[in-house]
Amino acid sequence: MLIPHLAGFPCSALRCYLSGLGGGKRKMTERTFGQEELTTRQREILGIVVREYVNTALPVGSITIAQRYPLGVSSATIRNELAYLDEAGFLAQPHTSAGRVPTEKGYRYFVARLMEEAELSLAEQRMIRHQFHQVQMDLDQWMRLTAAVLAHTARAASLVTSPYSPQARLKHVKLIAVSEMRVLLVLVLHGGAVRQEMMSLSRQVSQDELELIANRVNSLFQGLTIAEIEGSRYMPSSLEREALAHVVNMMRQEEKPLGVTLYRDGLTDVLQQPEFAEGEKARHLVRMLEERDILESMLLEASGRNSVQVIIGSEGRWGEMEDYSMILSGYGVLGHAAGALGVLGPLRMSYHRAVSVVRYVSRLLNELIGDFYTER
User: Fold this and answer.
1) Backbone angles phi, psi at 183, to 5 degrees
2) What is the H or E stretch that residue 18 is in?
3) Is 129 within 8 Å of 146 (Cβ atoms)?
């Protein structure tokens, strides 16, 4: 069983860092969940209630548990344990005569202490990897496919940020004469970003001379960052200085995280969940996805972290998230580019499934982005 490290949060504010994305055996630490420790039977019953409710969206009663699970105890004993779990805040009873449903606290305990090892099947891993390798080296297509795979596999709404590079690196410069003293500067950065900008020259220059300038810039500064370009001891000509000044300015603009794109998928699927049958709840979810402020801040916070993070409910920080759960992970290559991905759904989420796909896809993106950004 996977026992995540509980990062010192009280029972009302838990984030589960379920595993690193690197290879090797995961090392996890178990701490006391609040002040309460459940017995083996109570843990087993809580796990049954969570799994049954996730599968059926119906409250779970003692008779259902006794009939479907050979616990070796009477339904009366099960009722007593359900009552204890209710009083302790792990379960709730929607109506007096109804069974129990998990609370935020119950879900958190389940994810932290009861959820089994979360890995996609080998067949699913191969299928997803094949889909990505069918797409050419195209970041936009990778991001769209990532959102689609997450939404389809987790049956939830998915969110993916495009990779953000804190240090732009020059790959190629091209100068094209537009008029006697006007030039189109085409800048290609490592990672595939292409930017264009018009620049005015101090004197008339032929296309042949522009090509010589571009060739010198490429041979001297290919693969370098802004700091490395500005720290060079090369003494450029006046026209080369003009071109380099534009290049550096364009690279600075690229390093600002304002251009990060958010990709989404799966809204239709998640709105079909019974939790959103009520119109107001469905509108709230759509509004939150459209306004994006809270979700983007959560994704940016996760960006670059090589771990899966489970956020259940508001956790005291995000009031708008009270009725939702989100599974997040960063992805990327240190020093080159980083982004984040995740799935959003109701509290009644298949956490095993969601964690599995988020972990696997983030690992896969690590590999693909690594090849993409470190290519020379």
Assistant:
1) -130, 140
2) strand 15-20
3) no
Say yes or no: domain 122-164+260-374 is CATH 3.10.20.810: no
Domain 36-114 has CATH 2.102.10.10: no
User: Tens digit of pLDDT for each residue in 292-323?
Assistant: 788 888 888 888 677 899 999 877 677 788 88
The tokens for 47 are 């796990």
Instruction: Tell me the CATH class for 170-258.
Output: alpha beta
pLDDT in tens, 12-27: 333 343 333 333 333 3
In order, the DSSP letters of 297-324 are HHHHHHTT--EEEEEES-TTT-GGGTTE
What is the model's pTM?
A: 0.73
DSSP three-state, residue 31: coil
Burial per residue of 59-68, b for 16 or more beta-carbon CB atoms within 10 angstroms, e otherwise: bbbbebbbee
* Contact by Cβ (8 Å): 302, 342: yes
The neighbouring-strand residues paired with 196 are 186
Interatomic CA distance for residues 101 and 80, integer angstroms: 15
